[in-house]
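4.2 Preliminary Data

To establish feasibility before requesting continued support, the project team ran the inverse folding procedure on a target of 436 residues. The structure was first converted into the token representation described in Section 3, and no sequence information of any kind was made available to the design step. The complete token record follows.
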């Protein structure tokens, strides 16, 4: 059988098996191993490539950033910083129509800068923001929608685990990706706030219940608010300021951030010995899972190189004389379609090794391409039938009166807003690259 045909069959089987619920690392490893065996006709070659993938894929210095930022994010989650951030943001927006919704977006943006995970943001703010939004008279659909929509900021505003993962797989500077994510992340947060304001003005019924309670005046003084914000701001300055100021590398920033988060959690008396053990074991679980994914990704990339499938696709696109705009559109549509059935990491693992050689041949800036990819992939967190962020919210909410359909409908304005911001970043790359 032709190697490219074997590669295509393997790709189709990967999507099918992942959709059936089999772990993506297992799928990539097994199918890549079998496909390599079939292409070379020698099981020893497949075994050698697998051993090489295991040996070399985790030796990169940049890999050390993963367990450190995971530990930092988990320590921040148990320290109560999420609630402090939400309280301060609520005070800042308390006199604005739709202010609590905007406060949720603002708090998620700040929390993203010290947590790095959309799923963690969705989990934390489901418990913090949704009950308070509904108590103040916002509709359940809007309440869960604004939390789901703003939670995606966690994978764009640095330090983002998805940006780290993209950087390792694509061999792109993680520091440059962090820098490039700042302006798009702030732009997306601002666009979310604008959408909330427009929804209230155009159709208040989508946002407010018939009996809309007025937001109570906060008893938090400006001094208390600044005091609550001080630990959060300090951590952001230490980690991101250190990276952008050239004081230390992203890996070193992860170590400093994890230590600072540990001190913060201890000072706030939110971290018990049992809680610390949970943080450490959870960090181990997440790191081990990501390690398996990275090993599988390297094996998959080796298989694709042997199958010559990326070269075949590149030649086909060249013969078809597609413009770069058409190529990019095809890629983004593929991401959006896969986003309805696969999670973010699966999409990156499957598509990036296929598309990266084609994009590099076009002279594409891979930092800009990474941000475009992350935004497109994040839209999948909000779209049915998978919508991972939606399922996380449903699980944490535990409210039978709010269905999955309600959450998906509530996220639609935010998913459309993300499409608009994605279009802006595609048309104006300077938004991404201005700070790099």
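Position-by-position output of the design step:
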């Amino acid at each position: 059988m032709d190697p490219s045909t074997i590669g295509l069959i393997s790709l189709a089987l990967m999507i099918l098996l992942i959709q059936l619920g089999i772990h993506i690392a297992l799928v990539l490893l097994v199918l890549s191993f079998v496909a390599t065996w079939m292409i070379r006709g020698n099981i020893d070659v497949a075994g050698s490539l697998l051993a090489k993938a295991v040996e070399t894929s985790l030796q990169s210095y940049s890999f050390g950033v993963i367990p450190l930022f995971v530990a930092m994010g988990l320590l921040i989650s148990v320290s109560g910083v999420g609630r402090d951030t939400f309280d301060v943001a609520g005070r800042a927006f308390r006199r604005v129509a739709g202010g609590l919704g905007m406060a949720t977006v603002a708090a998620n943006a700040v929390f993203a800068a010290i947590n790095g995970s959309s799923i963690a943001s969705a989990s934390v703010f489901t418990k913090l923001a949704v009950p308070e939004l509904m108590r103040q008279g916002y509709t359940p659909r809007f309440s869960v929608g604004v939390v789901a929509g703003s939670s995606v900021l966690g994978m764009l505003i640095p330090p983002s685990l998805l940006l780290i993962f993209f950087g390792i797989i694509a061999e792109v500077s993680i520091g440059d990706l962090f820098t490039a994510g700042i302006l798009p992340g702030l732009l997306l947060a601002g666009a979310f706030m604008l959408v909330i304001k427009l929804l209230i003005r155009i159709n208040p019924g989508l946002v407010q219940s018939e009996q809309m309670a007025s937001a109570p005046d906060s008893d938090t003084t400006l001094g208390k608010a600044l005091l609550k914000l001080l630990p959060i701001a300090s951590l952001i300055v230490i980690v991101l300021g250190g990276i952008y100021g050239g004081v230390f590398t992203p890996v070193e920033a992860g170590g400093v951030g994890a230590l600072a988060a540990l001190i913060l959690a201890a000072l706030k008396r939110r971290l018990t010995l049992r809680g610390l053990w949970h943080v450490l074991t959870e960090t181990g679980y997440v790191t081990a899972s990501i390690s398996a994914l990275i090993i599988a990704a390297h094996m998959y990339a080796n298989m694709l190189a042997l199958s010559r499938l990326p070269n075949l696709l590149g030649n086909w696109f060249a013969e078809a004389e597609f413009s770069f705009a058409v190529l990019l559109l095809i890629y983004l549509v593929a991401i959006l379609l896969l986003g309805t059935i696969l999670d973010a990491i699966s999409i990156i693992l499957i598509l990036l090794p296929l598309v990266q050689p084609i994009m590099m041949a076009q002279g594409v800036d891979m930092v800009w391409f990474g941000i475009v990819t992350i935004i497109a992939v994040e839209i999948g967190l909000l779209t049915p039938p998978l919508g991972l962020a939606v399922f996380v919210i449903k699980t944490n909410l535990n409210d039978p009166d709010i269905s999955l359909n309600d959450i998906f409908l509530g996220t639609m304005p935010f998913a459309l807003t993300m499409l608009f911001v994605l279009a802006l970043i595609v048309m104006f790359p300077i938004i991404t690259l201005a700070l790099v």
